[in-house]
Amino acid sequence: MTTPILAVRNLAVEFDTFGGVVNAVRDVSFDLHAGQTLAIVGESGCGKSVTVQSLMGLIPTPPGRITKGSARFMDQDLVTTGAQGVRGVHMGMIFQDPMTSLNPTMRIGDQVAETLVVHKQYTRKQAQEAAVSLLARTHIPEPRRRAQQYPFEFSGGMLQRAMIAQALACEPAILIADEPTTALDVTIQAQILELMQSLQKENGMSIILITHDLAVVARMADQVAVMYAGEIVETGSVTDVFYHPAHPYNLGLQQAMPSNRHPDRVLEPIPGSPPDLFSPPTGCGYCARCPHAMTICDSHPPEMSPIDIASTHEARCWLHHELAPSENNPVRPSS
Amino acid sequence: MITLQNVSKYFSLGRGQQLHAVDDVSLTVAAETVVGLVGESGSGKSTLGRMIVGLHTRDTGEICYQNDVLPARFRPVDHVRYARHLQMIFQDPYASLNPRMTVFDILSESLRLQGQTDTRAMSDTIADWLTTVGLHPDHMTRYPHEFSGGQRQRIGIARALMIEPDFVVCDEPISALDVSVQAQIINLLAELKERMGLTLLFIAHDLSMVRYISDRMAVMYLGKIIEEGPSDEVFFNPQHPYTQLLIASNPEPDPDTERARSVEPIRGEITSPVNPGPGCRFADRCPKASSQCTTPPPEVIVSEGHRASCHLLAE
Description:
Number of helices of chain A: 12
Number of domains of chain A: 2
CATH superfamily of the largest domain in chain A: P-loop containing nucleotide triphosphate hydrolases
Protein name (chain B): Oligopeptide ABC transporter ATP-binding protein OppF
CATH class of the largest domain in chain A: Alpha Beta
Helix content of chain A: 25-40%
Structural class of chain A: alpha/beta
CATH architecture of the largest domain in chain B: 3-Layer(aba) Sandwich
CATH topology of the largest domain in chain A: Rossmann fold
GO molecular function (chain B): ATP binding; ATP hydrolysis activity
Radius of gyration of chain A: 21 Å
CATH class of the largest domain in chain B: Alpha Beta
Strand content of chain B: 15-25%
Largest sheet of chain A: 8 strands, mixed
Domain ABC transporter (chain B): 2-247
Distance between the termini of chain B: 34 Å
Oligomer: heterodimer
Number of strands of chain B: 12
CATH superfamily of the largest domain in chain B: P-loop containing nucleotide triphosphate hydrolases
Shape of chain A: globular
Keywords (chain B): ATP-binding, Nucleotide-binding, Transport
CATH architecture of the largest domain in chain A: 3-Layer(aba) Sandwich
InterPro entries (chain B): AAA+_ATPase, ABC_transp_ATP-bind, ABC_transporter-like_ATP-bd, ABC_transporter-like_CS, Oligopep_ABC_C, P-loop_NTPase
Number of strands of chain A: 12
Radius of gyration of chain B: 21 Å
Distance between the termini of chain A: 43 Å
Strand content of chain A: 15-25%
Largest interface: A-B, 42 and 38 residues
């Protein structure tokens, strides 16, 4: 395997709130390789957005702080040196809600051009020209006229295209997309995903895609990291994660969604709700909702362990420990 | 149970402009079935649902509930009268519960409107219902902000169902929720539907979920129902070009299916429903459009109980 373009190790982020300290991200490690798409999936509140915001230096401090870990990007640790000089240049980001992420009082063209003026020292005129061609690249019709318009004159899908144009202005090596299509209709979602894929093919950038929609993951990802309660609980190739789920949470998610391949399958919801991150559980975070929980799960947190030596497939679950009950070791623990 | 006959709703925008939110829609919802209504945002599906429960007036057509023709404009007495039969579950569980009322206040309001006055009896009913929807009777004294999205949606369901209506409009009841919670709410609705013999109009944009829960599926585009039929039939054998493209853009949680997907995404965006022409509403985005599409498309019966409006099917 080549060296990853971005390597995150043991990242942890906390926030001070009136209710106490929230351990939003507890222990996150992943690798992102050049030209690949890594999808981070999880429910709301599991820490997926905080993870990427901390990489981009977008965590407001205080109340937030990165308590440990490292994030190596091009011989630089984003945690110790900060993301200045990287953010917007080598790493571009698009957000969930295009309506509120763009400045309503600035013309679209100026907002795209601003990035180039700040980071690449373009003159305003050069930047304006570049902005128009960027808008054209993201398939906005009549880019010259559209560049003169304000965000309220754009539809949601068009704003998302404009935001992609802005993020790509400096030809970043990594594009971070935080729920880029959640606010959009399926038809527009298909257009935006298609656009991201074709731009990735053109300039070979890597994508970190944050989403809660497993269908979008299946469409876009090469590698998948499943997050739960501030931790990555399973990671692997998209095939491994979908067809050989190794963590009970991932399995539960797959069974909670209707499948059109098996139209008659009954939905199996995951009972309960995620744990309170004010007082993170001492054992496995998923223990209280897990149908396979054992005595050890409640008291000892499982480590990330490889499922298959040959691949990158790993899961954080005691069931994969050699002493856990299995077909070869049919001991039932007393509960 | 519910019959809609040529129902329309126009919003006037002034200066002679009219927004055709719902335009000449006919639909029958048989007793104890689930009809799913799908379409992009702006297609008029919520407006249609809200007209049935009297939250919007209607401009033309008739809506019949059993043998009654519902009034075009609900007066307060009509709301009280029909509320015990027709109920609604709203999309946003954050906006649809009054933050200054406790769960008891929220839930007892509908009972009070139906003439109940005995607080103790009401509190027993509410405690029962909270248990039914998977909450705890102690939650009665809490305020909405103390609950998660899924729990609030359960309160919304209890509010709609506790006066035992026959017909419930579910307006995107799960789109604000996480995947694991969505399945909980869907299963709860399906179970209560069986137990109480409910009839549901299930509005959503998640095609897979609609296919899963509905007996029949209706597809709306710019105020018109363009295809309607048994759910599996519409989903697996779509006839209208729009339905075909919509289903082709619906991503599946399955990497092999996704890799094999080759269909071009649908072009353009939904056009404006202001003063539309007489022809097919989808013509400007349709890859199969021809000159005949400027005239109103005929409604074609494709197979038993499956209809679609398109010139191509008439040949």
